[in-house]
Amino acid sequence: MLHIILCILKIIGWILLVMLAVILLVVGVFLLAPVRYRCNLNIQDDFKNVNLKLKFSWIFHLIRGQLLYNNDGLDVQVKIAWKTYPIDQEEKKAQEDRKDNTVVANVTNASLEMHSEQREEPFIEKKPKRERPIQDVEKEPKKSQKKEPNKLEQLIEKIKYTFQKICATIKTLQKKKDYVQRFLKNEIHKNAWSVCLLHVKILLRRVKPKKLFGTVEYGTDDPALTGQVLAFISMIYPFTEEKIEVIPDFNEKKLNADICVVGKIRSFYFLQMGIKLLLNKNVRITYKHIRTIINRI
């Protein structure tokens, strides 16, 4: 008897171990399997011709799809294993038109039925209404007459109300301003902001594209504005690792671009950042204080 019980417990233990292994495998695949993407963007003649093609895949191409956008419209297609799920905008419009047609048909049928019922109803003689005496008719307007309030008094009351409201808002803003300044100057909050900024930089470094290349040719009617745009681009140009060629045109208004982006993203990076932020005491305190500020506002 004891041997049988031990065998049953052994089988149950092996089943639980296999289930735990499967769960860990699924969670590991979900967290560690990267989402690979490739995006091609082509713009010509100031957005007159726009072509966008985005391809993505996940879990060894088990889930994949593509997004196509051009002047004809948007086309999205997702494929899971061997089954394809097209998301066509024209089919959605056709379905909506069919629904509208069915609603209109139902309304017309209901109106026809109501008219047929009214025709079938028997004729009922209507009794003539009794005329009210003239004295009663003359008395009613006197009862309904009310004293109209003075328009000047109404205007004065409105001005008083708006002035009181403006004063109250100024006082509340002054209090909130002082509270926000104290919040930003707190050392705990400063430490929390620095930790969040550090982790965001690490996340951006991890999820940045592996390949980024292309050309952008632009120009405006005003050469000064073209120079200002070029100065702004030069600020963010180092982040592209100088792999995108920018060609300004100071004589002609144009915008032509051909950009390709290739990379991958893992959900494990976001989970890791979230756990590290939650384990930080200063971040938790700052989050609680932000919630209190939002509730007060």
Short descriptors:
297 residues, alpha+beta, 8-stranded mixed sheet, 8 strands
Question: Can you walk me through this structure?
Answer:
The protein has 297 residues and is an alpha+beta fold. Among the domains are: 150-185; 186-296, no CATH class. 58% of the residues lie in helices and 23% in strands. The protein has helices spanning 2-32, 89-120, 134-144, 151-185, 187-207, 223-236, 267-279, 281-296; strands spanning 35-44, 49-58, 63-70, 73-80, 83-88, 211-219, 244-249, 254-265. It has an eight-stranded mixed β-sheet with strand order 5-4-3-2-1-8-6-7. A hairpin with a 4-residue loop joins strand 1 and strand 2 (49-58). Helix 5 packs antiparallel against helix 7. The model is unreliable at 120-127 and 134-147 (pLDDT under 50).
What's the arrangement of secondary structure elements?
Layout: H1 2-32, E1 35-44, E2 49-58, E3 63-70, E4 73-80, E5 83-88, H2 89-120, H3 134-144, H4 151-185, H5 187-207, E6 211-219, H6 223-236, E7 244-249, E8 254-265, H7 267-279, H8 281-296
Parallel strand pairs: 6-7
Antiparallel strand pairs: 1-2, 1-8, 2-3, 3-4, 4-5, 6-8
Helix pairs in contact: 5-7, 5-8
